[in-house]
TrEMBL record, chains A, B:
Name of the protein: Maleylacetoacetate isomerase
GO MF annotation terms: glutathione transferase activity; maleylacetoacetate isomerase activity
Entries under InterPro entries matching the protein: Glutathione-S-Trfase_C-like (IPR010987), Glutathione-S-Trfase_C_sf (IPR036282), Glutathione_S-Trfase (IPR040079), Glutathione_S-Trfase_N (IPR004045), GST_C (IPR004046), GST_Zeta (IPR005955), GST_Zeta_C (IPR034330), GST_Zeta_N (IPR034333)
Gene: GSTZ1
Location within or outside the cell: Cytoplasm
Cofactor: glutathione
Length: 216, 216
């Protein structure tokens, strides 16, 4: 087992990949990106080679410390346990529970319902409405929860795993033309986070596989 | 803030509620159940009273130690941090990552695509096929992953959070008439787990809100 640099299998536009890229940036972990294009060649995640790495045929996957981990939150929790500085989970168990509740609300309650493979099943004419409904349902709940947990960020005043889920999900909402005016807390926190360097360097518009016309 | 007994808002048939019931049983935590019937009265999870507790309008939610936590995995991680015995996450960080990867695969990659509210959207004539596709897609991946992580249970020989996700998901698969013969590892582990008392007392057929005709 070689140590070497961690390798992130990523797609510039994947919101789950972006979560992990933010964690890697915040923790100053040097890594290599191998782009997996979810559209090209019918989806490079379906190649035999990639399936051996992640049988779920999804990005992200992180090769690190001699093992390969799939599922963005499992990757972030692993990074937190093995590279604890700066922390992405508060020390207080109740606050940690709030961070994980918000993260899971997005990762299980919103994102899976509006991801590429589900939208394909739903059919082209229904895609936009379907995605908007899923996001609005989740954001309504999230806006309420944040009103009791948030400080400057999702839980208090320190950036946490919940924030790593929030920003990419808001970007998806904008892509699906969701009206964000009913969500002032979500919008405020999103804006504060986008001002931070780790959220900028990890942004879909600045990845090795970002097409030239989408770069910024 | 009163301490008192934890209160679990649960529905007998909800696979996410069952995950938490297994954790509570394994850790011998005494609790009270308040049933939330997801069908009756157009869905009791939509009542104003319940929405205040869990704005996601979903079960489970656990009132404990003066706070309320939604999202089953966030609840289980909280119980693990505050009531660590017996452990539901191994000590080794890589094995912990494997447990979380499997848990997230089920909790984000399978369950949300075949839950009640999505199946309603999909329409009655397509429900069964839709649910079967989602479960088969996830189980194909899971079967491969388990071939490298499993011992007696999902990760090695100790019961972990991954097992708490597996058994309720297999029950859903059976309810949706998924053919389990392509998944011998999943089936073997499921059978071993169902022999354990904590998986039996928490079973949907033995809850306070289980209808008489489904009791066993």
């Amino acid at each position: 087992m070689q140590a070497g640099k961690p390798i992130l299998y990523s797609y510039f536009r994947s919101s789950c990949s972006w979560r992990v890229r933010i964690a890697l940036a915040l923790k100053s972990i040097d890594y290599e990106t191998i782009p997996i294009n979810l559209i090209k060649d019918g989806g490079q995640q379906f190649s035999e080679e990639f399936q051996k790495l992640n049988p779920m045929k999804q990005v992200p996957a992180l090769k690190i410390d001699g093992t390969t981990i799939g599922q963005s939150l499992a990757i972030i929790e692993y990074l937190e346990e093995t590279r604890p500085t700066p922390r992405l989970l508060p020390q207080d168990p109740k606050k940690r529970a709030h961070v994980r509740m918000i993260s899971d609300l997005i990762a299980s309650g919103i994102q899976p319902l509006q991801n590429l493979s589900v939208l394909k099943e739903v059919g082209q004419e229904n895609q936009l409405t379907w995605a908007q409904e899923a996001i609005n349902f989740g954001f309504n709940a999230l806006e309420h929860i944040l009103q009791t947990t948030a400080g400057k960020y999702c839980v208090g005043n320190e950036v946490s795993m919940a924030d790593l889920c929030l920003v990419p999900q808001v970007a998806n909402a904008e892509r699906f033309k969701v009206d964000l005016t009913p969500y002032p807390t979500i919008s405020r926190i999103n804006k504060s986070l986008l001002a931070l360097e780790a959220f900028q360097v990890s942004h879909p518009c600045r990845q090795p596989d970002t097409p030239p016309e989408l770069r910024a």
